[in-house]
């Protein structure tokens, strides 16, 4: 499945042209990033070693239930198709949300498994005259593309009202194109986390790092104990773009991050060289990566997680980088989040730790009473509350009770996400045209896979990135 993401950003109203930030706004962005990173660090530290499920119980000792907050029409006899790239547990959990919609409305909903890139998948469906009614799009660029192709339909009054009641302005804005609301960001992700095997760290005498240098020290300590430090799911190029984005945001800063995301500076810029050089401090050491570069490039994301938390205190790797959704895959092992599997914020490479997050937005492709009702439901705390209880999921919906999340680790991450308000930055590759930032075997995904294979070729990687970006952005 494709994971989404964003970080601290300066708020702009829909349709406002991008402007070069002033020194004042640059300082504000850096301050905001530092504040949110601090909140996240404190939150994760507070719950990293807890084996409590962390739920807030009601008077009878059971977890509080999410009360129905949204009124839905009866849709008996109506049918809907919903497409997303989600698989496995994530797909199964979302189907439970759809089942609740069916129960409340009488509609029949079919989940349609999509392939990455989903825009190409939808294009083939539309060309064949059989588009799904609603699609979950993992990139703001994909929403814009769907609007430009006249595929996407604006949200109606009820869905827009539900969004306004439950979402910060920033999360509303990233689902907006040309002043019209098209996307409901049903799912969010915190993509600035490193998960680790607690027993491996304890045996090695390693401690949670707060800086990049400390991360390298921890990696060497784990390596010296006889365990490979990192598991990398290099078969999925998006995991590599996430690595790059965290390093780049922290090292180059929010202003350059925004400019590179918009291709206002080239990928041949010295700041990109610096970030790739930093990444090579891990990727360039074959013994630091499970299976070496070749093995990593054959390891898909789910396996990169499970191999970190199976094998007792002798797993294939001691750490794995990725977002909060890693919990879904940890759940497929015997490891328990908070005790066997712990987490720390992605360490600071520059002045501040990075905070990158993302999300999947529900977009209507066939406008009808039923599709509008589903969008309204997905914008409500009712829908998000169902999936929150199942784990491996975060919602930007600020009215989902924190007690809905199943453990202390996830409750703290959810609170940090909501408390951040509009202070976040979206995954850079998800902001890019899909040909560059979201297509397997092409663009940024392929260039970084090649870089993982040969981390010495920094100049060649930059040249390839820039050529592909220029073509995709139409420069």
From TrEMBL:
PANTHER family: ARABINOSE-BINDING PROTEIN-RELATED (PTHR43649), OSMOPROTECTIVE COMPOUNDS-BINDING PROTEIN GGTB (PTHR43649:SF29). This is Extracellular solute-binding protein. Belongs to the bacterial solute-binding protein 1 family. It comes from Streptomyces cathayae. The lineage of its organism: Bacteria, Bacillati, Actinomycetota, Actinomycetes, Kitasatosporales. Residues 13-23 have a biased composition (Low complexity). Residues 1-48 form the signal peptide. The keyword Ribonucleoprotein does not apply. Residues 1-12 have a biased composition (Basic residues). Residues 1-28 are annotated as: Disordered. Keywords: Signal, Transport. The keyword Electron transport does not apply. It comes from the Bacteria.
């Amino acid at each position: 499945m494709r994971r989404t993401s964003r970080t601290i950003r300066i708020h702009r109203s829909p349709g406002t042209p991008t402007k070069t930030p002033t020194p004042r706004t640059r300082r504000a962005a850096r301050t905001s990033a530092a504040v949110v990173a601090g909140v996240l660090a404190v939150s994760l530290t507070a719950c990293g070693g807890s084996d409590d499920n962390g739920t807030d119980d009601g008077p009878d000792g059971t977890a509080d239930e999410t009360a129905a907050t949204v009124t839905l029409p009866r849709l008996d006899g109506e049918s809907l198709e919903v497409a997303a790239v989600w698989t496995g547990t994530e797909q199964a959990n979302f189907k439970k949300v759809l089942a609740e919609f069916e129960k409340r409305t009488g509609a029949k909903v079919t989940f349609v498994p999509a392939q990455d890139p989903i825009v190409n998948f939808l294009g083939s469906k539309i060309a064949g005259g059989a588009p799904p009614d609603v699609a979950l799009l993992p990139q703001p660029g994909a929403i814009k593309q769907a609007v430009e192709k006249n595929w996407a339909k604006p949200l109606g009054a009820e869905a827009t009202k539900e969004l306004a009641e439950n979402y910060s302005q920033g999360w509303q804005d990233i689902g907006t194109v040309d002043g019209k609301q098209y996307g409901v960001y049903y799912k969010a992700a915190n993509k600035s986390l490193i998960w680790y095997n607690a027993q491996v760290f304890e045996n090695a005498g390693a401690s949670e790092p707060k800086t990049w240098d400390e991360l390298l020290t921890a990696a060497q300590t784990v390596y010296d104990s006889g365990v490979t430090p990192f598991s990398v799911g290099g078969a999925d190029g998006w995991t590599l773009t996430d690595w790059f984005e965290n390093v780049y945001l922290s090292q180059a800063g929010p202003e350059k991050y925004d400019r590179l995301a918009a291709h206002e500076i080239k990928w041949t810029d010295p700041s990109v060289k610096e970030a790739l050089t930093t990444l090579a401090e891990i990727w360039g050491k074959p013994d630091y990566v499970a299976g070496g570069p070749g093995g990593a490039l054959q390891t898909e994301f789910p396996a990169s997680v499970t191999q970190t938390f199976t094998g007792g205190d002798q797993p294939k790797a001691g750490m794995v980088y990725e977002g909060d959704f890693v919990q879904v895959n940890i759940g497929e092992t015997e490891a328990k989040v908070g005790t066997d599997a712990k987490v720390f914020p992605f360490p600071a490479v520059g002045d501040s730790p990075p905070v990158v997050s993302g999300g999947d937005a529900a977009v209507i492709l066939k406008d009808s009473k039923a599709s509008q009702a589903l969008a309204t439901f997905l914008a409500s705390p009712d829908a998000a509350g169902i999936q929150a209880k199942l784990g491996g999921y975060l919602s930007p919906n600020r009215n989902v009770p924190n007690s809905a999340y199943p453990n202390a680790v996830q409750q703290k991450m959810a609170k940090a996400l909501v408390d951040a308000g509009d202070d976040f930055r979206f995954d850079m590759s998800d902001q890019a045209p899909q040909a560059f930032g979201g297509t397997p075997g092409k663009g940024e995904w392929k260039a970084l896979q090649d870089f993982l294979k040969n981390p010495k070729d920094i100049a060649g990687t930059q040249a390839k990135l820039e050529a592909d970006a220029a073509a995709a952005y139409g420069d």
